[in-house]
């Protein structure tokens, strides 16, 4: 049986696409963005997250932790069990809501992702993915209502420095996807200290007809609590101020 | 020249000043604002006691003291307003209950002397226990922490059409007519007559004050407004209201009187009842939309009575009209604590509903709320009531509905704390040899049955004697058959569908769920461990966490979800099986209510990891942190699954994502949630869309935001007026659904 490694499921999500959605966070990502706000979704295997402030010092860690101090992130789901969760909100999805497969990188578990999309489609539930576009999977893309895809940094060397991979393949995948009949919402997380060249990214995306919207998402430091829980150092980035966002937002577009 | 917008701004500022002043005078009140104005310098009432226990009862006692309190009320006119009249004080303050007494009364030595002279040790003297004792019921009432309804008042709804048709002069004519027909009911009619005349004196004082203000007013537009105000008051002192302006002013005066008498806050179908006046005046060219909106805003400012908007008639025809929109716009223009409820039905004007949602999100002031016609009307019909009557049953109370003029439901006055019932069942279980959740449930049901029986006995005692204790002299005027028969409405209502609500659902469901999961299935604890932990109030935190981390009610597909449904079936079954005399019926509900702190203080440690004395859960809502994502859909599903199905509510009280915007997407999302909850059988939705930052700052220093309104439950309140403990509850509820 095909199983997926899932980090978390969030119901009633309203920020990951249109309408009311259930967001399924796949665990594991080929990129390793230094600012990642879901650092627990980078590794492909279950991980222990430790929140010392919640520990009650009962000394019975081996018998199970109930305080929320030690939390295992990552659980294997079969399609049926995951569908049971997704179906709880079926009545709320309507035409423009549905399921967002996020992560991590959902396309890093293509078989399970495909299975889940098929299951959802059988139930008449709309589907979208949030992806780094590191992978190109036409079979999956064609099944989706829309795709939220990141374009993080224009220069490939800088891209590699901050995310662990160069971006030629990602650029190419944007171009390839432009030939399919699918809406793309392109997004860039804004990290003030990094030379991302938003103007160039925006110019590139404007030439792709399928990119219906380009959003700039301000970096937020919420991933740092999870980094600490994973025993990692803080990412060291700062939130962009309003002026900076305002300045850059002239490159964002909707069409 | 002052525009309506200028005047509204000034009215809002005055309102904010009053809110802060009232808090100084009254201390914190975890209650609705009620529209009162601060007590004025030198205000004093000398109550008249007709009972040796230091209280007053019956026609003469209530009537005499009503006259004394309303006569002591100075007229209230703010020249910025077009309507006048406010209330400050009510009869119950003088009934010898030190517990209910506001601070300003306690601080006034002269006032306190009157009270002390009549004070006895009896806890509540709203009920005449000397004549109608119920000592036999008290042990079980206390055992199950029952709010009995004995000593209650108001909590039903007038048919304002009767008042609009007759006016105060017409009331007097009707009283005189039936006094002759029913000479044996002279005491009743005399009391009614004196009350109406006291209201007319109240109006006359406003006329006199307006006359004085006109003399000294220099601003031409305000002078004209005062002249109009005086003319309107003169017209309606005797005559029924003839214009839109007069109907609003008539309502304001009646509401002030009714509040003073028993704090009654039931309004009416505002867009329906006022529409004929609106239409006539527009056609006659004596009213325009801007003035109509100003008048409505003024009425909403005077008193946050519960008004319903929209909905369908008995033939499923949409009742939304142009005035429905104007009411929303008026509420937006004044934007205070408004108790407006939008009734939804698939035939209703969808644009109107979208607009209602828009204002909810835009203003973040917790109005309007939404109720579901289908489940309420169809549910109420299951009590043997016809469709027309069921459709007339509108939202006129905190979380309750009533058929205006016909029903005496005692809604909101009768509760059983089922967490306390479970506590008794747990005590019994320990005496047995084998422990199981099934057995616990059997014991719970047997206690619940006893609790319902003793509650029913209390209700019957109350209904048998309310007329001799607290007759409804003001509301009787607009109730069907009361004046005609010479009887109090508590004796002669057409419908005695009496609401009885359970409190603490989530605590009990989560307790059963935790026992099933952690003790019976996972064997993480033994029953003995669990009992020991209850005894020592969770000295061992790990034990508490094992129980509290079990999946909760509203998480979806959990054991606690299953128990919540089973508890509801049992609650409904036992309440409906309770026999009642004289055509009375009990209607079950899971009422959302503000007494979670007080009820919690009576309940010991519970198996859901709740420590002794902590607040119990809120109405039909889940416990805080029921899911990590706080999903509104999960909460909606859970609450839709515990509806009681007989026309009373199990409200969805929800704190919505503060980032939701008042744009098409935001409206779609909120409307989707409302519609889907209703499709699943939900009855009533109270939504807070709160600005988290503002809420936190206001919690630290409430005076920073004296205009911040939160929906506590069915009612809205000024955050600054709430006690620190209650403010914290609102903050906790907000935090529990504030997502990462």
- CATH homologous superfamily caption of chain A: Aldolase class I
> How many alpha or pi helices of chain A?
9
The chain-level structural class of chain B is alpha/beta
Helix content of chain B: 40-55%
Largest β-sheet summary of chain B = 6 strands, mixed
The greatest interface between two protein chains, and residues involved on each side, is: A-B, 26 and 30 residues
Widest sheet, order of strands of chain B: 2-3-4-5-12-11
CATH topology of chain A: TIM Barrel
Strand order of the largest sheet of chain A: 5-1-2-6-7-8-9-10-11
Total strands of chain B: 14
Describe the oligomeric state of these chains in a short phrase. heterodimer
Termini gap of chain B: 50 Å
**Residue share in helix of chain A:** 25-40%
Structure characterization notes:
The complex is a heterodimer of chains A (255) and B (740). Chain A has one domain (3-254): Aldolase class I (TIM Barrel). Chain A contains 9 helices and 11 strands. Chain A has helices at 79-87, 90-93, 110-122, 138-141, 156-163, 168-177, 198-206, 223-229, 242-248; strands at residues 3-13, 21-26, 47-50, 70-73, 75-78, 98-102, 127-131, 146-150, 183-190, 211-218, 253-254. In chain A, helix 1 (79-87) crosses helix 3. The relative contact order of chain A is 0.15. Chain B is of the alpha/beta class and 740 residues long. Chain B has a domain at 33-131 and 159-263. In chain B, the strands form 4 sheets. Chain B has a 6-stranded mixed β-sheet. Chain B has a 4-stranded mixed β-sheet with strand order 1-8-9-10. In chain B, strands 6-7 form a two-stranded antiparallel ribbon. In chain B, strand 4, helix 14 and strand 5 (369-372) form a beta-alpha-beta unit. Chain B is globular and about 80 Å long.
